[in-house]
Amino acid sequence: MMKNEKIENTEQKPDVIAGRNPVSEAVRSNRPIDKILVARGEKSGAIVGILAKARDKKIPVKEVDRTKLDYVSGGATHQGIVAFAAAKDYSTVEDILEYAESRGEAPFVVVLDEVEDPHNLGAIIRTAECAGVHGIIIPKRRSAGLSYTVAKASAGAIEYMRVARVTNIAVTLDELKEKGVWVYGADMDGTDYDKCDFSGACAIVIGNEGKGISRLVREKCDVIVSLPMKGQINSLNASVAAGILMYKAMKNR
């Protein structure tokens, strides 16, 4: 073999399920699945049936080019369809609130509004576990899920952290507020975080890496919290901002 010869990696990643029968069985068996990718324009009967079952179970489905499927499947035979399995079962929002109650503590929740980088999600889960957060809430779409990359980035914390997936973050915030949870959104032009008191039932909302929290989600927040910026750029990495606010809340609590 020549020194500079490129070796193609055909090893399938552990969170990828490739092929019609494997994906069909994963959906049928209720295995936790983050999303399904299907080849654009694929109309075969078997795939149509799989997608119908997936949509019944609220599994996100996205059409992509076959080259994308070739890449994510690591060279495995995908037959036009690939699923991404979760490394751990998801919890529910009720599970999170019940866990807080069982500990005799006011709910301490982190809500992620379309955080898409799996390394950020893993880092947030790791810090949340250390800071005493009862659970994390993420949306079903346009968000990193509990992949093996996230599990690795969490350094094992994924095993101890309850993560719930919801259809609509804004609606979920309304439901939390009805239960007495105060919602703090991390964004620009808000109250200095050091002047906020997170000692009661609270949810800290962290937005997308590029866009921040969405307009509708911002409107649902009781308080907008900002971190002071002394440099030339005006934002922090999502996991860093989340970590600062979680530890401020832990100190207050």
Question: What can you tell me about this protein's structure?
Answer:
The chain is α/β, with parallel strands linked by helices and 253 residues long. The chain has two domains: 16-85, 60s Ribosomal Protein L30, Chain: A (2-Layer Sandwich), CATH 3.30.1330; 93-252, SPOUT methyltransferase, trefoil knot domain (Alpha/beta knot, 3-Layer(aba) Sandwich), CATH 3.40.1280. The chain contains nine helices and ten strands. The chain has helices spanning 20-28, 45-56, 66-72, 93-102, 118-131, 148-153, 169-178, 215-220, 238-252; strands spanning 16-18, 33-39, 61-64, 81-85, 108-113, 135-139, 163-166, 182-192, 202-207, 223-226. The strands form two sheets. The chain has a six-stranded parallel β-sheet, sandwiched between helices. A four-stranded mixed β-sheet has the order 1-4-2-3. α6 (148-153) links the parallel β6 and β7 (163-166). α1 (20-28) packs parallel to α2. The longest helix has 15 residues, at 238-252. The model is unreliable at 1-11 (pLDDT under 50).
Question: Distance between the terminal alpha carbons, to the nearest Å?
Answer: 61 Å
> What is the 3D form?
elongated
Please tell me the overall pLDDT. 91
Give the strand line-up of the largest sheet: 7-6-5-9-8-10
Notable characteristics:
alpha/beta, disordered N terminus, 4-stranded mixed beta sheet, 2 domains, 10 strands, 6-stranded parallel beta sheet, 253 residues, transferase
Summarize the model shown.
With 253 residues, this protein is α/β, with parallel strands linked by helices.
